[in-house]
Amino acid sequence: MSSNSVQVKNFRPEIQALRALAVLLVVAYHLEPNVVPGGYIGVDIFFVISGFLITSHLLREAASTGRIKLSAFYGGRARRILPAAMLVILVVVAVGFLVFPKTQWGTLGVQALASAFSVQNWVLAADSVDYLAAEQAAGPLQHFWSLGVEEQFYLFWPLLILIVCWLVKPKISGSHSDHFAARRRWIWMAFGAVALLSLGYSIFAGYSGDAAGYFVTTTRIWELAIGGLLALGVQAHEAGALNLPRWVSAWSTRNLAVLIALIVIGIAAFTYDASTVFPGIAAAVPVFGCAVIIAAGSTRGPGSLHLLVNWSAVQWVGLASYSLYLWHWPLIIFYTEISGGKPRPLQSIALFIASLLLAWLSLKFVETPIRHLRFLAVSPARSLIAGAAMVAITASVALLPGLTQERIVEQEQRVATALAEQPPEGFGAASLSHGAPAFVTSEHQVVPVPAEAAKDLPNIGNCVQKPQSTQIKECEFGNKDAKFAVALVGDSHAAHWFEALSEYAKSNDWKVVTYLKNSCPFNEAQRKADQDGSINCQETFDQTMDALTKRKDIDAVVTASWGGSTFVSDPAKGLAAAWGKLEDAGRPVYAIVDTPRPPQDTYARDCVEENIDNPQACSFPEKGAFEKGDATKAAAKLEPRVKVLEFSDQFCVDGTCPAVVGNVLIYRDKHHISDTYMRTLVPVFGQRLQKAIDSQ
Prior knowledge:
With 696 residues, the protein is mainly alpha-helical. Helix content is 56%, strand content 6%. The strands form three sheets. Strands 1, 2, 3, 4, 5, 6 and 8 form a seven-stranded mixed β-sheet that branches. Helix 1 (12-31) packs across helix 13 (312-319) and helix 2 (42-65) crosses helix 11 (284-296). The longest helix has 42 residues, at 380-421. It is elongated and about 95 Å long. The model is unreliable at 1-11 (pLDDT under 50).
């Protein structure tokens, strides 16, 4: 490349155009994911740009002054990033109070707090591996995860350069630039080591099915480090330490490189989707495509895109990309919450225009004025104090949703506890025979309180294993010397029957033995998620089968599973084969047909909270409510020795499935039954199980 092509000042148009491309890909993906299924790669382009620009700035300072003034660096970052970000968080919290039901206020507060302190990515990573939180609806601040990655990069990257400069003491006399030149090789190695380690971990996390891998900083640092390595290469070339062949610097070569890089990025944007293992090696396509475009610099002549790059509209979108990124996602989430559905093409266009308008306002009246405010710009200390004040104020406001929810829920919880301790006639499932009224008391109080429904779990301790566990856990409940023992086996949909089974067992002096693992049905057929490594079911299935067939005290096996699971082979044959082995070993099997599932676009508890005086509005048709993948009945035809237990009439009446029956909330999340409702099912459950047992 020619010297003109690698000077940082000439990179601005290309970088602004890349920013525009990156943000438009992300916005298009969020608005119309079916059109641009891989648009999420825009975030990776942003990472490379950030790594390049920040490292360029740091290297120039280190080379010219022999040091890096951290206070000035972080003060500049505070003025650049915090004003618009904190404004968005404050607006989202305020609007969230008006738009979201109070069941979501606590989550809103956590997201706001995590975003204010730039740790949103770690919160989302924790939720992604938490089985009970994994299906949580996307929040209006979820997109702050990428900002968290960048902010964490800014914390340690300057320190890495400083450490290398401190450890390497050149034995030469000369200027700061001469000393820096002597240290450049060590900086190359430091940057390269970080990039390789992070890339290796990113590949490992992706192919091992680690759900947190998408969000954690350790799988993304290599993308920013590639930008850093590029900046180091540019500086070395400017200093004459890196000479490139003449053909590399030719306009034709650079124009062709840019076109190929754009085509490759475009292919990724339109062919990647949710099934692509990411970030991992797949992220190398947008990362290196972006790096090539930056390295090519300004172009001209045949095949050059300089007219498009320098187009004022493109440059403006690049300039406003940060604000556009901040505002577009909350608008989409609020629209979805208010309208009850995802935007259609016309609504997507309107949301995009609204996002542009908010980005313009934010850029003109917040970003630019504060970044160039002389009072702050001349003093790193003032910038840092102002930044800390903004974060502190935002964090204080972020606490309000959770505190408000807690105060309201505390009052509701007192009433709910009293109802549960002294249940009225017709409480829960007992009212089904009377037309399934939503309330049987004048007090329209739902048990559990919707905002606390997620915690209404079976009292089973830590006996339900996580999907990634390699061991099954055997737990016993009730009289250890009981003459009759029943095993409860399966996934989380087996676990939510624990209360009904254990209460009936207690009344009959039975022993209950559990072998439960989230996401792992008791089925010989392999789950697709097990095949791709995101869960571990086959190993624990074998352990469970071995334990059940070897134990001599198991008199019955009750099993259930989520009908939405997908398998590599026929699930009905897999169930029948597993059941057959137990029947052959003298362990009678009683299989429960899966429970109905509310519409997937919302939580029943949120709907009930918004319609507390008319929870019938949250009912849904019985037709289509049961997962089509439930193979229980089909498996029973293949293995007729197994008795099938069906309770659809305990969840749906006259073709409709309510969300609240007899003051009891049926669903604690998207498809698991609340423990309170299961307790009210004990008489019916026990009667049907006993009848099935007696028939054998």
